[in-house]
Amino acid sequence: MYRRFGYVLGEANCLWGLGVLARKCGDTEAARHFYEKAGPLFRQVSDAPGEGNCFWAFGELAREDADPAAALRSYNEALKLYRRVQSSLGEANALLGLGELAHDRGDTGAARKHYMKARSLFHHVGEVRGEAGCLRGLAVLALERGDDAEANAYNAQAALFERTGDADGQG
Predict the structure, then answer these.
(1) Would you list the DSSP string of 40-65?
(2) Choice between 163 and 109, residue whose per-residue pLDDT is larger
(3) b (16+ CB within 10 A) / e for 13-50
(4) What is the domain-level CATH number for residue 55?
(5) Which residues form the domain of 32?
(6) Structural domain count, the chain
(7) What pTM value is reported for the model?
(8) Closest Cα partner for 80 from 95, 61, 65, 102?
(9) What is the pLDDT of residue 168?
(10) What is the pLDDT of residue 30?
(11) How far apart, in whole angstroms, are the C-alpha atoms of residue 150 and residue 138?
């Protein structure tokens, strides 16, 4: 319908949503296809957050596919778009992705820096689940360097997961 009426933003949002659903169903190829279709449409209507979301999703898919170079490019592109429009939540998500990617690569200094900045942004916008994810990442980093006291402190703060209903995070 959106295509027929020329409502590009509506079409882009539908394609994005189909990508999200495909990813949740485990069909990463279909998800990638829908994000690839949505991104240029978001760009066409100057919707930087929508385009940023596509790049963030590409980063997530690349990280899952063990392609750190592609993930890094995608997260950085998303970060640039989110910062341009001052989307704190988008920026926080991109930074969390960069933190997880840095941790995957063994760059604990960069991981910590990204987790700390993302945590601050998540806290600022009231996104409890994202903040708790950062706390979990910081706890893992502390455990890996043998700082049990710091890890326990972050884990205690990560009890925020209880407010999200996220059973995996609580575990």
Answers:
(1) HHHHHTT-HHHHHHHHHHHHHHHHHT
(2) 109
(3) bbbbebbeebbeeeeeeebbebbebbbebbeeeebbbb
(4) 1.25.40.10
(5) 7-86
(6) 2
(7) 0.88
(8) 95
(9) 52
(10) 97
(11) 9
> CA 25, CA 127: separation in Å to the nearest integer?
24
pLDDT digits (tens, 9 = 90+) for 83-130: 999 999 999 999 999 999 999 999 999 999 999 999 999 999 999 889
**In this structure, are 102 and 66 located in the same domain?**
no
Q: Which two tokens stand for residue 48?
A: 């930087």
pLDDT category of residue 163 using cuts at 50, 70 and 90: low
| Domain stops at, among 86, 114, 134 | 86
Lookup result for tokens 């997880």: 100
Residue type, 144: E
Three-class DSSP labels, 118-160: HHHHHHHHCCHHHHHHHHHHHHHHHHHCCCHHHHHHHHHHHHH
CA angle 46/69/61 to nearest 5° reads: 65
Same domain, 36 and 11: yes
Q: Which of 53, 86, 119 is the last residue of a domain?
A: 86
Side-chain-side CA neighbours of residue 60 (13 Å): 19
